[in-house]
Write a structure and sequence with these properties.
By secondary structure, the protein is an alpha+beta fold. It is globular and about 40 Å long. The longest helix has 15 residues. The chain is built from six helices and five strands. The chain starts with 9 loop residues before the first helix and ends with a helix. A five-stranded mixed β-sheet has the order 3-2-1-4-5.
Length: 129
């Protein structure tokens, strides 16, 4: 499995924690999360240096977190800053507010994007982000 870490991104540590949480799930827990979510998220995060890193949360079949482009194609692509993602993951910002204020852009199945908070919360509870 590819390395999840990306230097210079606060989001990187969050994805490492998510990856660890997902790896600690039993097969039944993983399949329950896949069944509940049924989608692939591609997250394009830009840091303060205007560099972009891409992570994929595959909750369509495998229930895995990967660094890099989604394969197969993502159901929804979310584009945001490193700060915005950190605030979403910590619960300090609501995804709908981020979207409506332009801090979060979504391409594809926007309704699936609403499930990201629940995915982050499940993993946050497990990983103690």
């Amino acid at each position: 499995m590819s390395n999840i870490k990306a230097d210079g991104f606060k989001a990187s540590d969050i994805f490492v924690d998510l990856h660890t949480a997902f790896n600690s799930f039993t097969d039944a827990q993983r399949q329950a999360q896949v069944k509940k979510t049924k989608g692939i998220f591609e997250l394009r995060i830009t840091n303060d240096d205007k560099k972009e890193a891409v992570w994929t949360i595959d909750l369509k079949k495998n229930g895995v977190i990967l660094k890099g482009l989604a394969s197969p194609k993502a159901d929804v692509t979310l584009i945001m800053s490193d700060d915005t993602f950190s605030q979403l993951a910590s619960g300090k910002m609501d995804g709908q507010k981020a979207f409506l204020t332009g801090k979060l852009k979504a391409k594809g199945n926007v309704m699936l994007a609403t499930k990201l908070a629940a995915v982050l919360q499940v993993a946050k509870d497990k990983a103690k982000l």
